[in-house]
Amino acid sequence: NFEGKFESLDLAELAKKQPWWRTLFGQESGPSAEKYSVATQLLIGGVTGWCTGFIFQKVGKLAATAVGGGFFLLQLANHTGYIKVDWQRVEKDMKKAKEQLKIRKSNQIPTEVKSKAEEVVSFVKKNVLVTGGFFGGFLLGMAS
């Protein structure tokens, strides 16, 4: 006889106590491939990629306008005589910088860059769907 030994579970109360992101994404930890469905991974990657691409596009336009406007104002100030550019000094400094680049030029990649690149490759391998969705969303965000 099992009549008095069962306890009822109110799912509505349990859902109210859970944050919305846990009910949507689950509570497990580990790579996203183990936690989320394919559709959820693509959605997360796509939305974050689109937002990043959209912001990158807007900031890029603003930065290009600022840099272009700055060059325009400098040329205008130079042409009207407000500033004078010492072109011989610019040429001398450019030659010096060019020589320093030749000296520093080597075919070896620094170990810090190698370790970061390995981390990125490892992340991409573990989260292929999220990464693919991110890049697709990024391209769409740049286009919109």
TrEMBL record:
The keyword Transport does not apply. Coiled coil: none annotated. This is FUN14 domain-containing protein 2. Pfam families: FUN14. One of its GO terms (cellular component) is nucleus. Keywords: Membrane, Mitochondrion, Mitochondrion outer membrane, Nucleus, Phosphoprotein, Transcription, Transcription regulation, Transmembrane, Transmembrane helix. It is found in: Mitochondrion outer membrane; Nucleus. Its main location: mitochondrion. Binds directly and specifically 1,2-Diacyl-sn-glycero-3-phospho-(1'-myo-inositol-3',4',5'-bisphosphate) (PIP3) leading to the recruitment of PIP3 to mitochondria and may play a role in the regulation of the platelet activation via AKT/GSK3B/cGMP signaling pathways. May act as transcription factor that regulates SREBP1 (isoform SREBP-1C) expression in order to modulate triglyceride (TG) homeostasis in hepatocytes. It is a multi-pass membrane protein. Belongs to the FUN14 family. One of its GO terms (biological process) is autophagy of mitochondrion.
